[in-house]
Structure prediction request, 313 residues.
Amino acid sequence: MALPRQTVALLKAARQLVVETPADAILLLTETNLDWNEVRQHLEGCRLLVAAPYEDLANRIKRESGVTVLESYPGPLPVRDRLSLALLEAVASEQLRFGDHVVALYNGIEVEEKPDQIDSVSLMHLDEHLERLSARELRRLHTQVPLETLKAVVDVATEIGREGREGKPVGTMFVVGDHRKVLLRSRPIGFDPVRGYSRKERNLRDHWVRESVKEIAKLDGAIIVNKDGTIEAAARFIEVKADGINLGKGLGARHWTAAAISKITNAIAVTVSESTGVVRLFQKGEIVLHIEPLAPRPVVWRQFQLQAADPDG
Prediction:
């Protein structure tokens, strides 16, 4: 079956981008088994990576020559998450590298009646994009906190770690989920900067709220976030004992407190180190993820393995 006319037009546009940018590869997200002979004809001379949401579809595409199929089968996720997972898999399998330019083709409008209609093309530079790709690692965490909320918190924490505020480093802590128990285990340090605002005006899923939180992060104390993304309180002192907590040497009070509150509640604690910008996620008293936003190049989300010394409090 011939490709739809708009798909052909976008394939030709993608090839032109590869030639003129130049780009290192074309990534095509597909939900159907296309006419790959025609696809290769329109993308002649380009390296083609293909990501399919289901393993059976991917296996059928693997029989085609001149097509590299990524080993990632996320199922019926939003296209943004599927694109993120595909890029991470491409880097992990050494099909792409940090610094590469990638032209992505996909069904951005996600019309169920026409899943074979490629309607969107994007040009991405992986050094700028990979730092935000958290979906795969965050999805591994068994938590009642929705992925969208957890990603919003980690995104703002990573930005704080990388940028600081007004040129100065900032260290802070977010505690996400199980907020009632967390509030019972904490007390205000002083004035609460989010008190009096509507729930909409303090929801971290809003870009402008996340920007405002960067100012709040300069204050002492933890920022407590509901699982729906609403900031319930800020500038809170967490009163917990670190009994049974075993962290690496060099981590200060902020990290021990984060580990302790995550152990006695179902919350996830997210810390930003003032001295290094490193972001750590704590669950059930342990570090489960570790991000280095101040590294010379963005670091792909990874499971924590070896704890380096960090004198930050």
